[in-house]
Amino acid sequence: MVLRGSATRLLVAALACTACWLLAATAEAKTTKVAPTGSTQAIQDAIDAAAPGDTIAVAPGTYSGPTISVKTSDLTITGSKAAIIDATGNTYGITVGTKLKFEESLCPAYEVSNFKIRGLTVRNAENTGIFLFSVDGFEVSGGSYLNNDEYGIFPRCSRDGLISQNSGGGGNDATIYVGVDDNVTVEKNNLSNGELGIELESTDNSVVRANKLTDNTTGIFVIVLPNLPKASTETALIEGNVVHRNNRPNPFPPVCEGVETPPGCEEFFDDLQLLPAGVGILNVGGHNVTVRNNVVTNNNTVGVGVVNNPFGFGSSNGTVVSGNVITQNGKSPDPRTQGSGDIVYLDNPANGSCISGNVLKTSDFPFGEPPACS
Predict the structure, then answer these.
(1) Nearest to 306 by CA among 327, 325, 288
(2) What whole-number distance in Å separates Cα of residue 153 and Cα of residue 176?
(3) Contact 175/196 with Cβ under 8 angstroms?
């Protein structure tokens, strides 16, 4: 009986200690409210004073000034879309991470983790609205990323991320750019008037789900590009998206094929010169990319396209295109394209890809049609 009573007392003491620890941890986490001062320095001061677990709540208003920099783990920033970061004159609106570039062509070690930003508007950055570099676990949700010159939301060398329920557009690259990342989900975003709505570049284990993409040059773009730490894009699921009327003209000049041919052409300087306007979903060399249960309509050049990578990374092996509604595409193709229609497959049909169960009227298979999906 004495032993049993001792054990009971020890258990009670242990539970009490656990409860005290939880209460202490809860007490330590705090919310700092940022008044509408008009300066991003007020937001930065709150971030610099924050401890892991804290929340920075930004009041409605327009804030300008220095780029906001987050180097603390377990930090949350919240605010309505009426809390506006005007990044005019800055390369970035917000950066997350202790380093912002590759180290000897490699991703640096993760030093910031579990970052969240919910709400806010970030606009007018000269490059990127929010740039997350080597972040281990992140969420970017419920915000607006408008008229940032290149990218709206850009995680790089990061993993285990969620980009959800944002709106945005207006840039001359990707509004959401997932590049050299792992396990990032992009869902329920509404993106328009950008060069690319969503881009997956040299990245692994991505999910692009239930987004709405309209009036971009291309809605969803999967590609492998050179001079990056990773030389492939592996395993992406693109499902349940509405990809409609992405016919924004491509502002990049076409590549010259001869002297001033085509008109307005320039020598090659950017991969986006090769991109035709009017494309819904395009895979250029990604492996094991599944495109299913999307609605892809009224894109002037291509509804769903699969293309061999032009930068030496080979075939789009293992692409699955099934269960989609792909209609009214390819009716006014861009001269840059090599094919047009609801489905265009410019790749090896024996590369492990398959196509079946789609609703469509027009297709282009110049090298042969892949088999039906089993």
Answers:
(1) 288
(2) 5
(3) yes
CB 374 within 8 A of CB 337: no
In DSSP terms, which residues pair with 174 in a beta bridge? Answer: 196
Is the CATH code 2.40.50.140 the one for domain 31-252+260-364? Answer: no
Q: Which position has the token pair 């970017």?
A: 140
Residue ranges of E strands in 124-255: 128-133, 135-141, 144-146, 151-156, 159-164, 167-169, 174-179, 182-187, 190-192, 196-201, 204-209, 212-214, 218-223, 234-239, 242-244
Q: Going by DSSP bridges, is the β-strand pair 128-133/92-96 parallel, antiparallel, or unpaired?
A: parallel
| pLDDT tens digits for range 283-342 | 999 999 999 999 999 999 999 999 999 999 999 999 999 999 999 999 999 999 999 999
Q: Is the peptide bond before 262 cis (omega within 30 degrees of 0)?
A: yes
Average pLDDT value over all residues in the chain: 93
CB count within 10 Å of CB 167 equals 18
Cα distances (angstroms) measured from residue 36 to each of 43, 75, 77: 10, 20, 15
CA distance 97 to 277: 34
What is the CA 134 to chain-centroid distance, rounded?
15
Contacts of 106 (CB under 8 A, 6+ apart): 229
Burial of 301 (0-12, 13-18, 19+ CB in 10 A): buried
Nearest alpha carbon to residue 255 among 175, 332, 310, 329: 310
State the Cα–Cα distance between residues 225 and 273, nearest whole angstrom. Answer: 14
Pairwise CA distance, residues 11 & 154, whole Å: 48
pLDDT tens digits for range 173-224:
999 999 999 999 999 999 999 999 999 999 999 999 999 999 999 999 999 9
Q: Are 322 and 268 in contact (CB under 8 A)?
A: no
Computed from CA positions of residues 219, 224, 229, 230, in that sequence, does the dihedral angle turn out positive or negative? positive
Res 258: pLDDT: 85
Domain-wise residue ranges, the chain: 31-252+260-364
